Amino acid sequence: MSTMAVDDVAVAPVAEGFWTRNRKIGVVLLALGLLAAVLFGALATDQQARFTLSDDAEGAALEVNGTLGAILFGVLAVAAGAALLAGVVPKRWFTTVLAVGVVGFVASFLCWQVSAAPAGQNFMPMVNIVRGTFILALPLIFGALAGVLCERSGVVNVAIEGQLLMGAFAGALFGTMTGSVWIGLVAAALGGAFISLLLAVFAIRYLVDQVVIGIVLNLLALGLTGFLYERLMQTDTQKYNQPPRFETWAIPVLEDIPVIGPALFRGNIFLYLGLILVLVIHLALFRTRWGLRTRAVGEHPTAADTLGVKVLAVRYRNVILAGLVAGIGGASYTLALYTFTKNMIGGKGFIALAALIFGRWSPTGALLAALFFGFADQLGTYLGAINSIIPSQFLAMLPYLATMLAVAGLVGKVRAPAADGKPYIKG
């Protein structure tokens, strides 16, 4: 009985078909644009929608007729969707055209909401919106960076929620007991690292399923912090849950830049540290020997091992480093904004995980994705403040809806590091 060799058989390329990913997104964008132009245009009023360049109703502003703005921005979204559907957009311009369409839809929506707001409230303070976006995005930025460090090393980090929560708790507890924000910050970092150490030991040493152990660690952090909160913080708030706050630092000259200046250059240490870490981790990941080894371990650990890279040591080190970063993100709650409460992270760790995927496992991509989700959260707060007709329950859902839409519809085909989630057993 003979066998047929198949190595030399030519395989015809598979036809991509008409309904490519770009065209499908184009249809969705086209439908959203039509909805915006017709529905938002009809619901908007002839009042001027004012987008002030300050944190109140005073000062310079961009003004547009509510109805006209809703229609024109809707048409812009329609044009972007039609271009994608027609297949005339080069691949390198896809992201730009998609962004134009999304911005057009959001701007149309805002023209309706701002123009229809009660008298005296038909303005949007852009400084507050930008500042709020960054504040709400901060834990997502730190959490997504923690995910980048882990998953680029081949370890799935579902425990971001627990790392943020433990960091918030440790920062509040030790910051209050010592009266020092700096000791609180160090304690928060170590709290996040504690959860990461458990993740590293069980996932790397004992080869436990990384998703399962991540979920278990989230529950551990939730239970442990909840128990200690009830036993310590609730019994004596002054002694255990009144942490000091980091002061706001203004950067001369830069703080005077319209809109961006007051929002970005009058912030606390977490804002500056978050932006610096994005830059440092990006450069380290793609421009240093450590970054090359990290990416090699995440893509092909066996090949890295043959070249002398200590795979398990790299994974241990990076997972613990990720916990330090996430712990600092948790402290951005309790050492800058709030006192500690049970489960105060409220699912932000999972949104950070979505930002990691949306950002394609890149520090800069994770930053942009976190800002996208932070804007959705801030938008919900703003619409509630102007008594929007949209139900408050739906407004509370905005960041989570944005997460699902972004990951399911906008990311498209992305590839995680090849060895992500796969335990390495040294031969």
From TrEMBL:
It is found in: Cell membrane. It is a multi-pass membrane protein. The chain crosses the membrane at residues 25-44, 64-86, 93-117, 129-148, 155-175, 181-204, 211-229, 269-286, 319-338, 350-373, 394-412. Pfam families: BPD_transp_2. InterPro entries: ABC_transp_permease. Its main location: membrane. Keywords: Cell membrane, Membrane, Transmembrane, Transmembrane helix. This is ABC transporter permease. It comes from Micromonospora cathayae.
